[in-house]
Design a protein that fits this description.
4 helices, seven-stranded mixed β-sheet, alpha+beta, globular, single chain, Aminopeptidase
């Protein structure tokens, strides 16, 4: 499994993964837009399927906004979840954010997305706000927790 920064040519694979992971998955055009913006940055985990072909199995997408790094999404192939890929992806995104001089991570996560919340809290994120009824989900709406932590925070230490 190799990790690398994503490029525009990865847009279709990122869309495939995102659509398989989220009810309102983003399109290839959406990813082309994010990846073509200078403030956008993504990391993709790939596995070789032949000597010349690869398949994306996980990715994360961030956005520089002033001094903040906003984590827009992380998605992992269904069959590869709970294997540490999300943590590896976030670590690579964190290094990229640090190299860009960004200071603080901010993200929103559905209150009922317990695996993601576990990853973020174990990576040092703390809750800073709640957005009531933020995400449409299953015919209703669910709150979003707004989490934050310092860019480059080592070892999952707690801090915003």
């Amino acid at each position: 499994m190799s990790l690398r920064l994503a490029t525009l040519t990865d847009a279709a694979e990122l869309s495939r993964l995102h659509s398989a992971s989220f009810e309102d998955g983003w399109s290839e055009a959406d990813f082309r837009t994010w990846l073509s913006r200078t403030e956008g940055f993504a990391v993709v985990a790939c596995r070789a399927v032949s000597s010349r072909e690869w398949e994306a199995v996980a990715f994360g997408l961030g956005l520089a906004a002033g001094d903040d790094a906003e984590l827009l999404t992380i998605a992992t192939d269904q069959g590869r979840r709970r294997a540490g890929l999300g943590r590896r992806i976030f670590g690579a995104l964190d290094r990229e954010a640090a190299s860009r001089g960004l200071k603080r991570w901010v993200l929103e996560v559905a209150r009922n997305n317990l695996p993601a919340i576990g990853l973020y809290k174990s990576s040092g994120f703390v809750e800073i706000s709640v957005r009531k009824a933020y995400y449409p989900q299953g015919g209703g709406r669910v709150d979003a927790l707004v989490l934050s932590r310092t860019v480059g925070l080592a070892g999952g230490q707690v801090g915003a």
